[in-house]
Write a structure and sequence with these properties.
The complex is a heterodimer of chains A (about 400) and B (about 575). Chain A has about 400 residues and is mainly α. Chain A is about 70% helix and about 5% strand. The relative contact order of chain A is 0.15. Chain B is an alpha+beta fold. Chain B has 16 helices and 16 strands. In chain B, helix 8 packs antiparallel against helix 16 (about 535-550), helix 9 runs parallel beside helix 11 (about 350-360) and helix 9 packs antiparallel against helix 15 (about 450-465). The N and C termini of chain B lie far apart (about 135 Å). The chains are: A mainly alpha (about 400), B alpha+beta (about 575). Chain A: It is found in: Membrane. Chain A: InterPro entries: FtsW/RodA (IPR001182).
């Protein structure tokens, strides 16, 4: 009966059958509470908590680096900002997680269109850093369309591809490929090769799951490699980073600082606030926050953080595995793969296993757009996994029922 | 509802029929299972890399690459163990301007507040130079280095470098010397003992000098006050232990701060145009005609060679002496016959010259040579003057006579101090040294004068202070003996009219001599304090008085008001002298 009770099935419960917070509680919150996947929720909350700790450690380094001659940034400026983003992001996540599947699709499609439009507008009204125009300045907030585009596009792609599963004659894969192409053109124009690669790989994964033939996957992979090579020869910004990574002897020096953090941290870390190498890091509060953790909290904490991401991704993918609904299957997989890949890329960049990408560590890095977008994605993931028709998806549950 | 696959080349059969949907679902699950397995593999890669960095590679060697330009170097101590030079680890702040990640304008402003010795514009010029490497600052203290580190600019490196610190600033600057940025000694002790100081084994033991900072400081202070009062060009001073040859003080003014050797005291950088000669060690490298202080050597030579058997022997000083068209005059002319003590206390050039003629050229040269005046001082420092004197072919009667009263021969003040030590210590020449000598390590020395000659010279020197030109040098109880000297300055091989080098060689306590004090002032201009006089007796003697007064107590010389040298019989007429 316990399993059955998790089903979101209005007909199972007569109105007013349960007291508040009991399983019979049919208020909006009660339904949400008893249907949400609490393992995922706890993993996400743990990551957010880890993120606050990490930003607290990275804040002095970033604040002192960014303080000007005439003004001095408070050491904990970025911590306060992060707390504010968490205060804004949690409601976004929880609110999104309460959406129905239908509303989720609507949100994703509208969001994809808005973000695509914004991406097209960025070169004209956007601002940027490190040789790239990536965001639009809103009051008190730098809106980075590519960050919000990712979860919306994943959901929209899942919807389009699931339609294809329902009716093979629909040209939905072409439509989503066209949207992807438009987004890629805008992103590469910024240029933001890292996000382009991430979005492409996630889309490719979803298409693969939707049944794209392996020869075409291979062909697309080759196209992607050719695209990267082309980017290398046409985008100075990108070429410089790749050169750095490959030659090693060149300008490897920002990444050397990051590696020094891990070396200095050792197994147990120097302790909170004891880090010295972190002050030499570029972008300590965003791209290189993993290095700050490495110095102050050590290898064990870094491994635990990587473990948290792994648990989140595997948990979400296993839930998707049990899913029969093609849309939920594709959407859940897409979001999980996005989180997993983004975290992997960021950590590998910090560890000099990949060339510098300018990508944030989900839930951990400081930043308005990235944190709110991640919250949105996490909310979507929770909403998707919440509605699981467990009994259909779970082989062992089936067996239990049959018995 | 089933559509025929194949109308879309991109999509493999995506069947909508129930059975085929199951096939599609299981295929999707297989693919997803493969993707799920990828993530633990990626996590494992990350874990291995973390272990590689944090455990295998471990702590980075230092906060930055060490610029080992200046290697560790031995400390230098004075005779009592006071630090004169030591090496500490400072920071060199370097920048790689091409790799700057922050705004140079902002960075320059912030660096300028941390590094007050550099202006914002200088720093900005470095930051925007486009060079691959620049020093922003050297010898930066740890506190400043920490603040610069916290700027977090990755293009700025902090490198540890060994730095030489001279905690007493300009004290004994020329004697100590300084090192270049590679850690090689350039002058002074740093140069003379460069190999020992840098030697990996020997540098563990500090180099102990014969200098005594208390004596050095007293002399340095008094001479600096005198230079200021007299508006003089400079000064030199030596204090030497007469029995061991150890140099306790070596002062050369103007001086400099060896911590910033490239800059003058006012902060401007040295150029050939504005070099004030502050790095020039006048005590060892300066060659001067020292004038009347030399007469003591002439008298001692006459005594030693038997020319003088009786100090009451008289010499004709009734009129100036004409030799080879050259006229020798007395400054304090008595125009009568003078006894030897009178010649000495009135500083009679005529009398001394006549005495030298009796001694003769050969014996004069012999004794000057024995005193070490014809060759660079036997001394450790590399900055030593080569004495200037006429070649033998040109050392005629005139040269013999002028050299007898200190003209026509240039030596360093160190030569003079060592000569006086030989004169009063019983007659033994010992090479002077800047290193501390244990009693056992004091060389026996070579005898130049007999004990008897030395004793007579001590009486005569005392007489100059009690009854002669050196009265202002006397310090009650300390039995000071000494002799004044004044000579015209030589610049570029010519005498400079109206510019004198005045000096005083003093010995105390003269009955049992322990220390020689030589002070020399370059071109004193006279002052209210000296009633406009520029002579040694008026200018230098009072300084000698103050110096001995200050250095005798720490050197353990006790005043004794009941002792003195027996001067009886030197001046039967009770002669007196006034300047």
């Amino acid at each position: 009966m316990g399993l059955a009770a998790r089903r979101l099935d209005k007909r199972s419960y007569p109105a007013g059958a349960g007291a508040a917070f009991s399983r019979g509680d049919r208020s909006r919150f009660g339904r949400w509470f008893w249907t949400i996947d609490k393992t995922l929720l706890l993993l996400i909350l743990a990551l957010i908590a880890a993120g606050i700790t990490a930003v607290a450690a990275a804040s002095p380094a970033a604040a002192r680096r960014l303080s000007g001659g005439n003004f001095r940034m408070d050491d904990l400026y970025f911590l306060y900002r992060q707390l504010m983003w968490v205060a804004l992001g949690l409601p976004v996540m929880l609110g999104t997680s309460m959406l129905s599947i239908r509303n989720l699709k609507r949100l994703a499609v509208v969001g994809t269109l808005i973000c695509l439009l914004s991406l097209i507008l960025v070169p004209f009204i956007g601002g940027g850093a490190n040789g790239a125009a990536r965001w639009i300045q809103l009051p008190g907030f730098q809106f980075q369309p590519s960050e919000f585009f990712k979860p919306c596009f994943i959901i929209a792609t899942a919807w389009l591809l699931s339609l294809k599963l329902e009716d093979g004659s629909l040209p939905t894969m072409q439509i989503s490929a066209a949207v992807l192409a438009m987004a890629l053109i805008c992103l590469i124009a910024q240029p933001d090769v890292g996000q382009s690669a991430l979005i492409s790989v996630v889309w490719l994964s979803q298409a693969t799951l939707a049944g794209l033939s392996l020869t075409i996957i291979g062909a697309l992979a080759v196209t992607g490699v050719i695209g990267l090579v082309a980017a290398y020869f046409t985008l100075d910004h990108f070429a410089a980073r790749i050169d750095k990574f490959i030659t090693g002897s060149g300008d490897t020096f920002q990444i050397d600082k990051a590696l020094d953090c891990f070396r200095a941290g050792g197994l147990m870390g120097t302790g909170p606030g004891e880090g010295r190498m972190k002050f030499r890091l570029p972008e300590a509060q965003t791209d290189y926050i993993f290095s700050v953790l490495g110095e102050e909290f050590g290898l064990i904490a870094c491994a635990l953080l990587a473990g948290l991401f792994l648990a989140l991704v595997v948990r979400a993918l296993l839930l998707a595995m049990e899913e029969d609904d093609p849309f939920i299957f594709l959407a859940t997989s897409g979001l999980a793969i996005q989180f997993g890949l983004q975290a992997t890329i960021n950590m590998m960049v910090n560890l000099a296993l990949l060339p510098s990408k300018g990508m944030t560590l989900p839930f951990i890095s400081h930043g308005g757009s990235s944190f709110l977008a991640i919250s949105l994605g996490a909310g979507m993931l929770l909403a998707l996994t919440r509605c699981n028709p467990f009994l259909k998806g779970r082989p062992w549950a089936k067996g239990a029922l049959a018995a | 509802m089933a559509t025929i696959p194949g109308n879309d080349p991109l999509i493999r059969a995506i069947p909508a029929a129930a059975g085929e949907r199951v096939t599609a679902r299981s295929q999707a699950r297989q693919r997803l299972a493969f993707i799920i397995m990828l993530f633990p593999v990626l996590a494992l890669v990350i874990l291995v890399r973390l272990i590689d960095l944090a455990v295998v590679q471990g702590i980075p060697k230092s906060s930055g690459p060490t610029i080992s330009a200046a290697p560790p170097r031995g400390d230098i101590l004075d005779r009592n163990g006071v630090e004169l030079a030591r090496t500490f680890e400072a920071y060199a702040i370097t920048v790689m301007p091409r790799r700057l990640t922050s705004d140079p304008e902002v960075l320059a402003t912030r660096l300028a507040t941390i590094l007050p010795e550099r202006t914002r514009e200088e720093i900005l010029a470095d930051l925007t130079s486009g060079k691959s490497f620049r020093y922003l600052a050297r010898r930066v203290l740890p506190g400043q280095a920490r603040r610069i580190n916290e700027l977090g600019e990755p293009a700025i490196e902090l490198a540890r470098e060994a730095e030489r610190l001279y905690p007493n600033y300009a004290l004994a600057a020329q004697a100590l010397g300084y090192t270049d940025d590679k850690g090689h000694g350039l002058i002074g002790v740093e140069k003379a003992f460069d190999a020992d100081l840098a030697d990996p084994v020997k540098r563990a033991t500090p180099l102990m000098l014969s200098l005594d900072v208390r004596v050095q400081q007293a002399m340095s202070h008094e001479l600096a006050a005198l230079v200021a009062d007299q508006n003089a060009k400079g000064a030199a001073g030596v204090v030497m232990d007469v029995n061991s040859g150890e140099v306790l003080a070596m002062v050369s003014l103007p001086d400099f701060n060896p911590n910033v050797p490239g800059k003058r005291a006012d902060g401007t950088v040295y150029t050939t145009a504005n070099d004030d000669g502050s790095r020039f060690n006048r005590v060892t490298l300066g060659g001067y005609e020292l004038g009347s202080t030399f007469k003591a050597f002439t008298i001692a030579t006459a005594l030693e060679t038997g020319v003088l058997t009786n100090l009451q022997k008289q010499y004709d000083a009734t009129r100036p002496l004409e030799v080879a068209g050259f006229r020798i005059r007395d400054d304090h002319a008595k125009n009568r016959w003078l006894t030897v003590p009178e010649i000495f206390i009135y500083s009679s050039n005529i009398g001394t010259a006549r005495m030298a003629l009796e001694v003769g050229r050969e014996r004069q040269r012999e004794y000057l040579d024995k005193l070490g005046f014809l060759k660079p001082a036997e001394f450790e420092l590399k900055e030593k003057t080569k004495p200037q004197f006429p070649p033998l072919s040109n050392w005629g009667q005139l040269a013999t006579m002028t050299i007898s009263y200190g003209h026509g021969l240039t030596v360093s003040p160190l030569h003079l101090a060592n000569g006086y030590a030989t004169l009063v210590n019983g007659g033994f020449y010992r090479p002077p040294t800047i290193l501390k000598r244990d009693a056992a390590a004091v060389p026996a020395g070579t005898r130049v004068f007999s004990e008897k000659t030395s004793a007579e010279m001590r009486r005569l020197l005392r007489l100059v202070v009690t009854n002669g030109t050196g009265r202002k040098a006397d310090v009650p109880g300390y039995r000071v003996g000494g002799k004044t000297g004044t000579a015209e300055k030589i610049e570029g091989g010519r005498y400079v009219r109206g510019q004198n080098v005045v000096n005083f060689a003093a010995v105390f306590p003269v009955d049992a001599p322990r220390y020689v004090v030589v002070a020399m002032i370059d071109d004193p201009r006279g002052s209210k304090a000296t009633y406009g006089f520029r002579t040694a007796g008026m200018v230098v003697a009072p300084a000698i008085h103050r110096i001995i007064e200050r250095i005798a107590p720490p050197l353990g010389v006790l005043p004794d008001y009941n002792r003195d040298v027996n001067l009886a019989g030197l001046l039967p007429g009770g002669a007196d002298v006034k300047e």
